[in-house]
Amino acid sequence: xxxxxxxxxxxxxxxxxxxxxxxxxxxxxxxxxxxxxxxxxxxxxxxxxxxxxxxxxxxxxxxxxxxxxxxxxxxxxxxxxxxxxxxxxxxxxxxxxxxxxxxxxxxxxxxxxxxxxxxxxxxxxxxxxxxxxxxxxxxxxxxxxxxxxxxxxxxxxxxxxxxxxxxxxxxxxxxxxxxxxxxxxxxxxxxxxxxxxxxxxxxxxxxxxxxxxxxxxxxxxxxxxxxxxxxxxxxxxxxxxxxxxxxxxxxxxxxxxxxxxxxxxxxxxxxxxxxxxxxxxxxxxxxxxxxxxxxxxxxxxxxxxxxxxxxxxxxxxxxxxxxxxxxxxxxxxxxxxxxxxxxxxxxxxxxxxxxxxxxxxxxxxxxxxxxxxxxxxxxxxxxxxxxxxxxxxxxxxxxxxxxxxxxxxxxxxxxxxxxxxxxxxxxxxxxx
Length: 432
Fold this sequence. Notes:
Residues 66-186 form the Saccharopine dehydrogenase NADP binding domain. This protein has helices spanning 15-30, 38-53, 73-88, 102-111, 128-135, 157-165, 176-183, 198-214, 234-243, 285-294, 308-317, 322-325, 328-349, 381-397, 413-423; strands spanning 63-68, 93-99, 119-122, 142-145, 169-171, 191-193, 219-227, 249-252, 255-258, 266-269, 276-281, 298-306, 353-363, 369-378, 404-406, 427-431. The chain is of the alpha/beta class. The protein has three domains: 8-57, no CATH class; 60-199 and 382-431, NAD(P)-binding Rossmann-like Domain (Rossmann fold), CATH 3.40.50.720; 203-378, Dihydrodipicolinate Reductase, domain 2 (2-Layer Sandwich), CATH 3.30.360.10. Helix 6 (157-165) links the parallel strand 4 and strand 5 (169-171). The protein starts with 14 loop residues before the first helix and ends with a strand. Residues 1-59 have low confidence and may be disordered.
């Protein structure tokens, strides 16, 4: 900090001068004013001026973030990016990761050097009492829920606890029905963002960007691609199996249509570095949110992976009874059991994540229709979903989101721009 006048160390440090300083200190506290060496007055004035001129944030307490599911792949990536963004913005941030046991915490510390700076909170996101206890440990400035899969979950318990305690909240929920339930809790004194992350999340911001450019959207095709597991571990595999039990929501002429999961295979050009990839219909909450809040009458969402044999494997899995595919515990076991093979294949196919948004506007007077195509790709799904989730959380930490429960598609232009700027980190294609 800058000081006014000569620095203290430039003045004579005699015993008499030190005595005068002590006398000035004593007089100041007793309310008396006596004649002093002018140099002492100068030091006093300089000190007061320096204190007055010091930045007010220097005494501000550190803000805190709790990442529930933080010992997992997506949660660990989110915690890492929270720390990195805090360093970029000079924000003093204390990160805590929540997990079911210390074993997963120790594994995270082994693979993530940054974790040495974080603290661990034992919490089972499936247990309401455990969640309540973790949330009550201190006054968190934001809680981020990354503990998937979200399919088959009927109540947003962590969101409920956050709103009850007045803690801003972000999640990466990718289940349509659970998102609807969360939105019904809209009366809140703090902000909450539901269905953040890369997709859903940033993909909804891309749709909103296209909407603003075109004025309105008549037809919307959202397509997503991840090579292998994208480095995100067994959760993405089990979530895909669980989604096969849910007929994907589409809209045609404004009417809700349920299609066959993993049907209508087609090729989509995801751009340089990714190329054309096959995608298939799969349920995605932004079909609902973009129809509900932007009034888009025709919407579909599709997903594909690599190698293509995995696509055919998911297609074959559709013959299994819905009760089997919807069994969370069983699908998690199948995914975990398959991981050695899947991980070996991942070494060859990489972990690229890509998004393709094609929005078509209404016909003009001459019958022509404008089209907006937006494409974004990152080298690694695990990394970019953590980055995107942290970017949404920072909108809350920087207090740019008003109280209420919001979907990303509802966020304003300033937040959209801020999140885009941060998520561009490490992208291999940024075609907006």
